[in-house]
Amino acid sequence: MDDLLTAAQTRHHRSVTALVGTAWNDQSPAWERAAELPEETIRWCAAQGLFGAMIPEAYGGLGWSSVELGLLYEALGRVSASLASLINVHGMVARTLVRWGSDAQRETLLPDLASGRRIAAVCLTERDAGSDLSGISTTLDEGPDGFRLNGTKLYTTFGRRADLYLVLARGDGGQVCCLLERKSPGLEVAPMTGLLGLRAAGLATEVMRDCPIEAAAVIGRPGFAHTVLVPHLLEHGRHAVAWMAAGMLHRAFSACSAFVLDREVFGRNAVDHGQVQSLVTAMGVDLAAARGLCLTAARALDTADPVATRKVLMAKYLACQVLERHSAQAVQAMGAQGCLEENGVAAVYRDAKILNIIEGTPQLLERLLAVPLAREAAAGGPA
Known about the structure:
The chain is α+β, with helices and mostly antiparallel strands. The chain has three domains: 2-119, Butyryl-Coa Dehydrogenase, subunit A, domain 1; 121-221, Butyryl-CoA Dehydrogenase, subunit A, domain 2, CATH 2.40.110; 225-378, Butyryl-CoA Dehydrogenase, subunit A, domain 3, CATH 1.20.140.10. Helices cover 53% and strands 15% of the residues. It has helices spanning 7-24, 28-34, 39-47, 66-79, 81-100, 103-115, 224-262, 274-302, 308-334, 345-355, 362-378; strands at residues 120-123, 139-143, 146-156, 164-171, 174-181, 187-191, 204-213, 218-219, 264-265, 268-269. The protein has a four-stranded mixed beta sheet, covered by helices on one side. The chain has a four-stranded antiparallel beta sheet with strand order 2-3-7-6, with no helix packed on it. Strands 9-10 form a two-stranded antiparallel sheet. A hairpin with a 2-residue loop joins strand 9 and strand 10. Helix 4 packs antiparallel against helix 5 (81-100) and helix 5 (81-100) packs antiparallel against helix 7. The model has no long low-confidence stretch (mean pLDDT 94).
């Protein structure tokens, strides 16, 4: 990928890849077995400033560009999808406050989020509302003594660990987002277990029973969440997930390549067999294509390109699709060794399915992409 980056971006990519890899490259199997990310890892992320990578320097963050952030998520994805998800969901809340929070919200919360003194999570999904968030039933009602939040949220990444939640709810004037403190009366957080992937990502259910919410904790005006705030939040998440997928595919490709170059089958190295060559070629080419789309999307975000949202959707669509396809092929090519947790490919295989669902399934992204792509192509313009 270095040939696609500037010299400064190449140095940044090598730096964050070495930083994360040196610290945690061999730890992810233990995290998977324990179904938890250790506190020492979270403290390390805080010490390295990663929780503030997406926050402006004025609030104590690193103020990294979208390209720099993407390269960080790629490096994290090489080590652990759960570790990458921690920075991602925290960043989704932080970027929402940077863009749409009030002055008081930014000044009060962003320094703590940048330093990692507080960890944030996003509460969107409900039992009957996933890709279609118009079906949420959580409510934020205003009464004589202020707002009250009621409902149940599911699959909240790092919900077990978070100190602050950004919650999507229905208000009198439409959907609204509000900030909910972990210590809020009426909030019950329960771990979710038995998941296919992201086993160390601390997923949780939040049950909210008359949780008091101050007016100062509401973000934007009523109805603003559905049309502007949540799409912006999801755009950050989709951009991060696309890069995470590229990093995870790199991990699977590296492990699979080392195996087929070393393993002898029927008197020849496995890589000398035609079927294996087809698999390796497709994996390498698709990895390069995914990285290219991710980089295009990141640069579009950095330049406020009018079609940046579409480019992010395309990157997420391709990267997660090829990750799911090729992680399965990597396990197949490595046989029994591919099924061992210590090799890392099994975890990538499980996590790949999750990444292809979160922040928008392929079917949802096709619904969002098909018409604009077709119209542009019919008009003779570039995709």
